Amino acid sequence: MKSFTLWRFLPPFVRDRGGQHIGETITDHRGQVAYLKTFRLSDPQIRRGHLLRTLAGADWELDRAAAALGSSREELIRRLRAAGFSALLKGGA
Questions:
Q1: In whole angstroms, what is the distance from residue 76 CA to residue 26 CA?
Q2: Greatest extent of the chain over all pairs of C-alpha atoms, in Å
Q3: Residue 31 dihedral angles phi and psi, to the nearest 5°
Q4: What are the per-10-residue average pLDDT scores of the chain (93 residues)?
Q5: Nearest Cα to 54, choosing from 90, 85, 87, 17?
Q6: pLDDT for the residue 35
Q7: Looking at the chain, which terminus has fewer C-beta neighbours within 10 angstroms, N or C?
Q8: Which residues in 19-30 are b (16+ Cβ under 10 Å) and which e?
Q9: Contact at 8 Å (CB) between 49 and 42?
């Protein structure tokens, strides 16, 4: 059986830039696409992705992530709660 490769991709989650997609593709051993599926993200999904990517880039340290976003720790916590990510906060931070 010939080999196939699965590749999942994410957008840059840059705010105020439309047409961002998430998806996956399967290619065969020659690099030809055998399957492709993408989903266009809504503005709220892009904002949530931006928050998560910033947190991951700051090793999930709230103070570092807040500084990267140019805001305070309290503002970051408010944004996380508003985005539905309260469960990610330790002890109700």
A1: 37
A2: 55
A3: 90, 5
A4: 89 83 96 96 93 96 96 96 91 61
A5: 85
A6: 97
A7: N
A8: ebebeeeebeee
A9: no
State how far the Cα of 69 lies from the Cα of 53, in Å rounded to an integer: 11
**Measured distance CA(83)–CA(32) in Å, rounded:** 38
Give the number of C-alpha atoms closer than 13 A to the C-alpha of residue 78, restricted to the C-beta side: 5
Q: Give the separation between CA 51 and CA 31, rounded to whole angstroms.
A: 33
What is residue 1's predicted lDDT score, i.e. its pLDDT?
Answer: 54
Alpha helix ranges (H) inside the chain: 43-57, 62-69, 73-82
Distance CA 84, CA 59 (A): 20
Two tokens at 40?
């266009």
Q: Please report the pLDDT score of residue 7 as a whole number.
A: 96
pLDDT of residue 51: 95
